Fold this sequence. Notes:
Elements: H1 20-28, E1 33-39, H2 54-66, E2 71-75, H3 88-104, E3 109-112, H4 116-125, E4 129-132, H5 142-149, E5 153-156, H6 174-191, E6 199-202, H7 211-219, H8 221-225, E7 232-233, H9 239-244, H10 259-271, E8 276-279, H11 282-297
Helix pairs in contact: 2-3, 3-4, 4-5, 10-11
Amino acid sequence: MRRPSGYPWWGTGDGSKVSTFIQVTLLRRPSPVVMGVLNVTPDSFSDGGRYAGLGAAVEHAMQMVGEGADVIDIGGESTRPGADRVDARTELDRVLPVIRELAAAGVTMSIDTTRAAVAAEAVEAGVALVNDVSGGLADPDMARVVAEAGCPWVLMHWRGHSRRMADLAVYDDVVKEVCAELLERVDEAVAAGVAPERLILDPGLGFAKKAEHTWRLAAHLPELVALGYPVLVGSSRKSHLGRLLEAADGSPRPTGDREAATIATTVLSVAAGAWGVRVHEVRGNVDAIKVWQAVQAAR
């Protein structure tokens, strides 16, 4: 097992629009990275097609940047539990126009995809990171694309596509198993030619996890951080928050009303050592991180 020695230096390696400076500073930031979610899909669990149009998507992305987002994470295929898959051409048709517009505006972006072909075109168009919820399992060619591009790669813990994930939430010790399975993904990525310094880990909260699994991972996040890789946490608006905040009749809190809970998970994550958080509403999370930083500075 090869471990990274501190925060990495890398370039894109392929002449894309993203500068080495942007990628270097992203991982060397003294404060946690805030990744703003931009779903350009008609069936997202959180915004249900609200930003599927080019104009609305670009406007929302620029709003998030103005509120303090460091990265805009663009997704063209819903990964919510039970979601149907779309083909690569549909995914590209959704994301590429947005990427090109935002690249022209100098926005730092990641592409949320499990497909190597989509990642390759997105990197060429100007994204800085590949955020792969399958950790490279869905498309064996993803490691080659990332290695050739020289870009950072988020490896999320994953056990199967959306329609199957609920059946795969079986663990004896979720913390140990998630850590072990993520390190397997690291080993396979490195064996395929990806430098370990380019890897970021994500515990995959809510993906093939019951609520109790997600809470246990949140409580033991320092163990994941201790593996030695930057850790991205995506807890925003997820079902474990909705269930925790359920109404008297047992119905979960609506997704749009989970922001205060999301902000609480952001503070807990950065306090545990997370490199970054992936959120839908940027301003409140940025503010909360600033408060946490002020307290840390005053110690």
